[in-house]
C-alpha cells in the first residue's frame, strides 16, 4: 500500500506525458496519394474561386457525402490568387460557399446550393458573406441537411468592432432538403458571430452551435423558433487559438471543454450546466473533433493530438494516447471518423491553414479500438489541412481537405503557373485487416 | 485548521500526491496571459496576474458559482468579493483576494438556504461587510415558488462572524444596498418589486417606502428579468440617498384617434430620473436631474436608462456611469447638477468604477453579458482613455482597487478569473 501512495500519482503524471507510448518513426514515412474530388461551384471568369474547406462533413441515408468549398474572401483577406480588386466585381459578392455532394455510385461530385443566396446575405466587400463553413454540415435520418456560415477572422469584428457600420452579419443557419431543394433560413443566432460548431438534435428538432471567439453557446428550436443564447460556456482561455468544437451525444446532452481542464455538460431539458470531474489529457486539455458511437461513447481528439473517449453513462474518461506519439510536433488533426463495425478511428494530420510544415507529416492514421494500436498508413500528398472526416456505411473513409489539387498526376495551377489551393474530398478505402496496409 | 498527528497513511499519501498532481496540472493550465491578443487588448505587460476563482467540481467554489457581483477593499488589506450562481449553479460565496491568490471565505447559501446570489456589498467604517442576497429571476417568475426573500447580513472579516438581519421583503430579492452608518441605517431596493426599504441596525426594524419603480418584466431569448429597478444607491454625508428610476407619464390620445371603448391615454416611461430621499423623509422626490443620454433614449421601450455604477468623488459629488450609453458623468447632490464627461468607447453600460493607486478613475464598461473594456479618466486633466480588454473572452462585471492600488477586474462566468491590472507596467 505504501508503494501505491507514490506510484499511482507518478503513473498518472507519466501517463499524461507520454500517453500510450506508441510513436511514429518519422524516418520511415510512406507517401500515398488518394484520389481528390474538388468542390464544385463558385466559378468566376471561368475559374474556381474556391480555396478553403474547413468544415465537418456528413453522410446522408442515401449514401451521399456532403461537403463544401469556400472562397475564403473575408476580413482575413485570403483571395486565393485573385486580385483584391475583384471583390467589388463579383455578382455574388465577397465571401461565399458552395455546398456539394459526392455520389459514390457515380464517383462524382455535384454542386448543390450556395450559402450566401440561401441565407439572403447581400454580401459585398464591406459587409462580407460566408467565406466558408467552419462548423458541421449535419444531417438527420430523413436526409435533411443543417449548416451555418463563417467568415475568416470575423472575430476581429465580432469581438471589438462589431458595431461599426460594416461587419460580417453572423453565421446564418440553414436547413436544406436535397430532395426538393427547399431552403429554410433560420436567421443568425449570434449577430456578428460566426459559427464553428453546429449539431442537430433530431429528437428535440433543435440546432446547437458555438461562436469561435467568445465561445458563445446557443440553440435554436426549429419547431418553436425559440432562440436561447448562453454565456461563453465553451471558453478555454488557456488556448491561444479560438474554440472550434462542442459535442452532442446521442441523448441530446452537449459537452464543452472548460477553463479548468475538464468537461462541462449541458442538459437541454432544464438548461443546466454541470462540470464533470475529469481532467482531459494533453497540455491544452480540449478537443477539436468529436464523434459519438451508437451506444453513446464519445471519441475526441485534442488540438495537440491526444485521443480520448468518454462514457457519459459512467463519466469515465479513457486516454487513448497520442495520434502520432509526438505531441510537441506542430501538426494539427481536427478530424475524427468512427467505423463502429470494424472498431476503428481514422484521423488525418495537417496544418491550420497554409502550406504543410514538414513536421506536420499529413499522416493518415488508424486507431484500432480493440487493440488500442495505432496504424500509420502514410503521408497523403497534396493536403495542407483537414477538418472533417466521416466513415460511410461501406467502410470508405472521407476526409474534407484543402491543399494542392492533383488531377491524376497533374497538379492544378493558376494562370500564373503557381499551384492552386483547392477544397476537396479524398476517399480512403481501408483494408479489412489493418497490418496489410502498412 | 485541522491538525494531523502521526505519520501519514498510504491513503493519505495517495491523496497528497493526487493533490500535488492536480496542483501541477492546474498551474500548467493557468499560465500567464497569452500572446494571442485580438485588437483592442490591454498591453500584455500591464496584466500581472490572472487568478481563477472557481475551484472546479470538488469546490468549494464550483463551476457556475464564481460569477463575481461585487468586490470591496477592507481594512485588513484583502479585497472581499461576492458571487452569484449561474446556469444551474446552486451556491453563492464570499471570497477574498490580495491580488496574488484567491481564498474562499464563506458559502452564503449554506447559511441562507435558497439564496443563490449576493447582489451587493457595502463596507462600513466599522470594518464590517454588509451584503444583500437574492435568487434566480426564474424563481420570481414561478408563481408556486417558496422563496422566502433576500437576506440582509453583515460579515466581520476578523472574527469571520456572520450576522443575519433577516428578510428585507417577503418573496423579494435585494437588488442593491447602501448604508448610513452614522445613523445606523441600511437602505436597499427590492427586486423585482422595486420597493425602497430601510433597516435600522439598532431597532432591527424594516421600513418600506413603497414602490419606486414599477417592475418592467421582459423575456429575452428565453430568460426572464425585470428592467429599470435601480442598481445603485448613493448616499451623502447628510444621510440623503439618491437613485435613478423611471417616471410614468400619461400621454393623451389625440381626439381623432380615440376609439369607442378604447383608451384615452397611453403611458410613457421616462427613465434616468434621479430621485432623493432625505433622512427622516417618507417619500422620495425628483431632483430634476436626468441621467445624460442621447435625446429621446430615456423613454426607449427596449433599452434601460439609469445609473449602472457610482463612486464618491473627492468634492462630495458622485461619479456615475450610465447604463444606456455608457457615459461617465458627475452628479452633484447639493445642486442636483449633472456634468457629462461622455465616453471613450463605442459600447454602453459603464458598470463599475474604482480609483486606482495612480489617482485616476478606472471604469469598466461593455455589453451586458459580453466583452468588457477597461477605461480610465484622469481627474486632473479631464482626459478619458479606452485602455482595452484583458483577454479575448473576458466577460467582466466589476473592478476594484487592491491595497497596492492595482485594479482587479473580475468576471461573471461559470469559471471566472480575476485579472490584475497595473498601469505602471
Question: What do these coordinates show?
Answer:
Chain A is globular. In chain A, the strands form 9 sheets. In chain A, strands 1-28-27-26-25 form a 5-stranded mixed beta sheet, with no helix packed on it. In chain A, strands 2-33-30-29 form a 4-stranded antiparallel beta sheet, with no helix packed on it. Chain A has one domain (24-437): 7 Propeller (Methylamine Dehydrogenase, Chain H), CATH 2.130.10.10. Helices cover 6% and strands 35% of the residues of chain A. With 438 residues, chain A is mostly beta strands. Chain B is mainly β. Chain B is globular, with a radius of gyration of 23 Å. Mean pLDDT of chain B is 90; it is low at 1-37. The chains are: A mainly beta (438), B mainly beta (425). At the A-B interface, helix 1, helix 3, strand 16 and strand 20 of A face helix 1 of B.
What are its keywords?
heterodimer; A: 438 residues; mainly beta; Methylamine Dehydrogenase, Chain H; five-stranded mixed sheet; four-stranded antiparallel sheet; 3 helices; globular; disordered N terminus; B: 425 residues; 6% helix; 43% strand
List the helices and strands and how they pair.
The complex is a heterodimer of chains A (about 450) and B (about 425).
Chain A: H1 2-18, E1 31-32, E2 36-38, E3 43-44, E4 47-48, E5 58-59, E6 65-70, E7 97-103, E8 108-114, H2 115-118, E9 138-139, E10 145-148, H3 155-161, E11 173-177, E12 182-185, E13 197-201, E14 206-210, E15 217-221, E16 226-229, E17 247-248, E18 254-257, E19 263-267, E20 272-276, E21 289-292, E22 298-301, E23 306-311, E24 316-322, E25 337-339, E26 344-348, E27 363-368, E28 373-380, E29 383-391, E30 397-404, E31 406-407, E32 410-411, E33 421-428
Parallel strand pairs in A: 1-28
Antiparallel strand pairs in A: 2-33, 3-4, 5-6, 6-7, 7-8, 9-10, 10-11, 11-12, 13-14, 14-15, 15-16, 17-18, 18-19, 19-20, 21-22, 22-23, 23-24, 25-26, 26-27, 27-28, 29-30, 30-33, 31-32
Chain B: H1 10-28, E1 47-52, E2 67-73, E3 79-84, E4 93-97, E5 102-107, H2 108-111, E6 117-123, E7 129-134, H3 137-140, E8 151-155, E9 162-167, E10 173-180, E11 185-191, E12 195-200, E13 205-211, E14 216-220, E15 223-227, E16 234-235, E17 241-252, E18 265-277, E19 285-290, E20 307-312, E21 318-322, E22 328-332, E23 337-342, E24 350-355, E25 361-365, E26 373-377, E27 384-388, E28 396-401, E29 407-411, E30 417-421
Antiparallel strand pairs in B: 1-30, 2-3, 3-4, 4-5, 6-7, 7-8, 8-9, 10-11, 11-12, 12-13, 14-15, 16-17, 17-18, 18-19, 20-21, 21-22, 22-23, 24-25, 25-26, 26-27, 28-29, 29-30
